[in-house]
């Protein structure tokens, strides 16, 4: 029972001293036990009565973690030292000069029972070996943790590449190529100071170019949420550092995919491909980007065969502005009689130059 006693002294009317003793006892407010046993529950930081399990105090401060952490590290260091000392079979006992008493005692012993005393230099040397061994073990542990962190970052990047490739409906070969490129970037530490998202987007863009399945910057930006300029700068940097051959992107690689996204029939797709080939031969759109050439040829072909698509819709699919497509279409319209030959009109009976809109 926890109790405290107080003694008071006072004087009566006659002047004599009278002593009174008052006792204050501590009891449980629930079971009214006069000898309660309180237990500190460290899981909930409460003070609990052992008899009725009632909480009589909360929000207690746990002061065990600091000294336990220190004791744990101390025990670990002692264990490391013990293992290394037992393995190297040496002692750190300091050299003590013999006194007269020890010399007299040692004189009566046999020569075979006298153990050689190790000099201080040997003890210091072996202490340095122990210190270096402990430092080596700490270094190995830090290197292992760093390796595990690099592996986690690499797996996180691989998962992001797979997710983007699956969303863009890219084949497995693009996923594998992009992973290999990112692994080379990580091995050469080229991602230092750059955004990981930009590195991933650039690896996917470079893999698409290498496997002749190119994608535009706008398509990559829409999924990775990385600005186009940042992807362009990162792409040029990786192309130079890795020595990767990206290969040129032509409008032929984009034509079929754009037509499929616009839901055009096969006749419109074939007509757009033929117009693209003739325009290249005549250098009608010389100096224009492949995306602009593909968009303008599709715009002309869709109206030519009676399946018109608005320039705004084509610009959304191709990733270029509507003004760019219309400016390229002006050049095609000015050369329409040479581009749309009689064999082409015979190959597509529904085609007519009268369907072309005037720019």
Automatic annotation (TrEMBL):
<dbReference type="GO" id="GO:0017025">
    <property type="term" value="F:TBP-class protein binding"/>
</dbReference>
<dbReference type="GO" id="GO:0016251">
    <property type="term" value="F:RNA polymerase II general transcription initiation factor activity"/>
</dbReference>
<feature type="domain" description="Cyclin-like">
    <location>
        <begin position="253"/>
        <end position="334"/>
    </location>
</feature>
<protein>
    <recommendedName>
        <fullName>Transcription initiation factor IIB</fullName>
    </recommendedName>
</protein>
<dbReference type="GO" id="GO:0006367">
    <property type="term" value="P:transcription initiation at RNA polymerase II promoter"/>
</dbReference>
<feature type="domain" description="Cyclin-like">
    <location>
        <begin position="159"/>
        <end position="240"/>
    </location>
</feature>
<dbReference type="InterPro" id="IPR036915">
    <property type="entry name" value="Cyclin-like_sf"/>
</dbReference>
<keyword id="KW-0677">Repeat</keyword>
<dbReference type="InterPro" id="IPR013150">
    <property type="entry name" value="TFIIB_cyclin"/>
</dbReference>
<keyword id="KW-0804">Transcription</keyword>
<keyword id="KW-0805">Transcription regulation</keyword>
<dbReference type="InterPro" id="IPR023486">
    <property type="entry name" value="TFIIB_CS"/>
</dbReference>
<dbReference type="GO" id="GO:0097550">
    <property type="term" value="C:transcription preinitiation complex"/>
</dbReference>
<comment type="similarity">
    <text>Belongs to the TFIIB family.</text>
</comment>
<dbReference type="GO" id="GO:0070897">
    <property type="term" value="P:transcription preinitiation complex assembly"/>
</dbReference>
<dbReference type="InterPro" id="IPR000812">
    <property type="entry name" value="TFIIB"/>
</dbReference>
<dbReference type="InterPro" id="IPR013763">
    <property type="entry name" value="Cyclin-like_dom"/>
</dbReference>
<dbReference type="GO" id="GO:0005634">
    <property type="term" value="C:nucleus"/>
</dbReference>
<feature type="compositionally biased region" description="Polar residues">
    <location>
        <begin position="96"/>
        <end position="113"/>
    </location>
</feature>
<feature type="region of interest" description="Disordered">
    <location>
        <begin position="96"/>
        <end position="115"/>
    </location>
</feature>
<dbReference type="Pfam" id="PF00382">
    <property type="entry name" value="TFIIB"/>
</dbReference>
């Amino acid at each position: 029972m926890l109790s405290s006693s107080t003694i008071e002294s006072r004087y009566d009317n006659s002047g004599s001293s009278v002593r009174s003793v008052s006792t204050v006892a501590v009891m449980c407010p629930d079971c009214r036990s006069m000898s309660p046993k309180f237990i500190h529950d460290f899981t909930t930081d409460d003070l609990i009565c052992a008899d009725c399990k009632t909480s009589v105090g909360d929000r207690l401060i746990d002061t065990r973690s600091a000294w336990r952490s220190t004791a744990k590290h101390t025990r670990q260091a002692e264990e490391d030292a013990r293992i290394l000392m037992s393995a190297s079979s040496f002692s750190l006992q300091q050299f003590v000069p013999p006194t007269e008493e020890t010399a007299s005692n040692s004189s009566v012993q046999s020569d075979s029972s006298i153990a050689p005393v190790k000099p201080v230099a040997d003890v210091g040397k072996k202490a340095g070996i122990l210190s270096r061994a402990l430092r080596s073990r700490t270094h190995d542990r830090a290197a292992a943790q760093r390796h595990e962190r690099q592996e986690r970052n690499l797996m996180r990047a691989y998962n992001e590449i797979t997710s983007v490739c699956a969303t863009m409906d890219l084949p497995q070969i693009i996923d594998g190529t992009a992973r290999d490129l990112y692994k080379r970037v990580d091995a050469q530490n080229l991602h230092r100071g750059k955004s990981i998202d930009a590195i991933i987007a650039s690896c996917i863009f470079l893999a698409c170019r290498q496997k002749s399945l190119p994608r535009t910057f706008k398509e990559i930006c829409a999924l990775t949420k990385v600005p186009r300029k940042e992807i362009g700068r990162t792409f040029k940097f990786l192309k130079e550092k890795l020595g990767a051959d990206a290969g040129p992107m032509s409008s032929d690689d984009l034509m079929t995919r754009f037509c499929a996204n616009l839901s055009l029939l096969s006749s419109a797709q074939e007509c757009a491909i033929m117009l693209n080939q003739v325009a290249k031969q005549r250098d009608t759109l010389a100096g224009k980007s492949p995306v602009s050439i593909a968009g303008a040829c599709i715009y002309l072909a869709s109206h030519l065969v009676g399946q018109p698509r608005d320039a705004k819709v084509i610009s959304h699919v191709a990733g270029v502005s509507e003004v760019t497509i219309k400016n390229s279409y002006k050049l095609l319209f000015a050369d329409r009689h040479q581009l749309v030959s009689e064999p082409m009109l015979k190959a597509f009976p529904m085609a007519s130059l009268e369907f072309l809109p005037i720019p």
